[in-house]
Amino acid sequence: MLNEKVGIVTGGSVGIGRGVAEALCRQGARVAICGRRRDFLDQTAQQLEKIGYQILAIPADVTIRGDVEHVVSTVVKKWGKVDILVNNAGVSGRTPIDHPDDTRWLDILQVNLTGAYLCTKLVLPHMVGPNYGRVINMSSVLGRFGVPGYSAYCTAKHGILGFTKAIALEVASRGITVNAICPTWVDTAMARQGIEETAAVIGVSAQEFRTQALAAVPIQRMAEVSEVAALALFLCSSDAAAMMGQAMNVCGGSTAGSA
Question: How many CA atoms lie within 13 A of 89 on its CB side?
């Protein structure tokens, strides 16, 4: 149980972030969710409040230091501390190396990688323990291998694993654990975007590409948000106090053949 624990979940209004936020609430945590879309945040907060959960919705762009400072200060003012940080905010998209515009590359690295850096940097001083603190960084199976046309996303998610290992060693003596989760395809809006975008490039329907993509996953299906959230809950538990600097796959077997 996570009674009296305080968590922040970035990108917490939809998809994996929402699933993790709700799972933390179910275990008794008080949770702040942040994201760029106020309408999504408010809708999620209202739905979770109706169930009786303690939830706080704070609009923020994790690439802007001032926004992150506002999130952290608001949470600390309301609840006094931060025990759990889930760096889930992310964007994806094709970035073929011959594309003339660098905008998407820069945005993907800023949101996925710099956003995790800023949030971690500003939250850590408020993880007061004693001997407890959890940082969970959402990577991807694309942090384990490369996919042509997705160099920015692969770079960011590989970078998250290096970030996780380095920061874990910096804070281990404080009883804070830092770990990463690497999901495969999960049935979210981001996955649907990726399917539609890639299908258009190779000239097939979205359904046809979805079938092809899942055929490459040994379990022959997408992972469920709840399966990713369950691993996040374990990492937040006292049973995971010795899990440090690790990257755990929820991959349906798609990384089993790699080192």
Answer: 32
**Considering only CA atoms, which of 138, 142, 133 is closest in space to residue 116?**
138
User: Which phi-psi region, left, alpha or beta, contains residue 93 (left: φ > 0; alpha: ψ -120 to 50)?
Assistant: left
Cα 37 to Cα 26: distance, rounded to the nearest angstrom? 24
Tokens coding 251: 């991959």
Listed range (36-45, 154-163, 205-214) with the worst mean pLDDT: 205-214
Question: What domains sit in the chain, N to C, each tagged with a CATH number?
Answer: 6-184+224-249 (3.40.50.720), 186-222 (no CATH)
Number of Cβ atoms within 10 Å of the Cβ of 100 = 4
How much is the pLDDT for 209? 87
Dig out the tokens for 22 from the structure: 């709700």
Q: Which helix (H) or strand (E) holds 11?
A: none
- In this prediction the pTM is 0.95
What are the catalytic residues?
153
Task: Determine contact, residues 123/8, Cβ cutoff 8 Å.
Answer: yes
Kindly state the tokens that stand for 2: 């996570």
